[in-house]
Amino acid sequence: MTQLWPAPVAAGAVRATVPLPGSKSITNRALVLAALADGPSALRAPLRSRDTELMASALRSLGATITDGPDGSWQVDPADLRGPAEVDCGLAGTVMRFLPPVAALATGRISFDGDPQARKRPLGTVLDALRELGADITGGSLPFEVHGTGNLHGGTVTIDASASSQFVSGLLLSAPRFDHGVTVRHSGSPVPSLPHIEMTVAMLRDAGVVVDASQRNTWRVEPGKISALDADVEPDLSNATPFLAAAAVTGGSVTVPGWPARTTQPGDAIREILAQMGADVRLDSDGLTVTGPDELAPVDIDLRAVGELTPTVAALAALASGRSHLRGIAHLRGHETDRLAALENELNGLGGQVQQTEDGLIIDARPLTGAEWRSYADHRMATAGAILGLKVPGVMVEDVATTSKTIPDFPGMWAAMLGDSA
Ligand SMILES: O=C(O)C1=C[C@@H](OP(=O)(O)O)[C@@H](O)[C@H](O)C1
Ligand SMILES: C=C(OP(=O)(O)O)C(=O)O
Question: Which active-site residues does the annotation give?
Answer without folding.
Answer: 308
